[in-house]
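re the bet — no i am not wrong, look at it urself. input seq straight from the record:
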Amino acid sequence: MTQLGAETIPGAAAASVPDLPEDDSDLKQMFKDAFPGWSIIKTDRGNWWATRTTVDREDLSNEDPSALEAKTPAELWGKLQAASR
């Protein structure tokens, strides 16, 4: 587990979670740079989403999600790392 500010991210290696900026635009760009192919969205309710297009039916499995939701950017980072393994 990694501690990111006040948030603990299960399954994330300490060296793999960067300091996340406060500005949403900077955060979105950081996510896009680290996780190409994913689109990053922050809703008006403050939730964070990562989505990607799937090419064929085989990509639509539980092991390879096409959408991830999180309450915080740090939580989304951890979920994207897990999905990228």
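see?? Confidence is low (pLDDT under 50) at residues 1-7. told u. also The longest strand covers residues 39-42. so pay up
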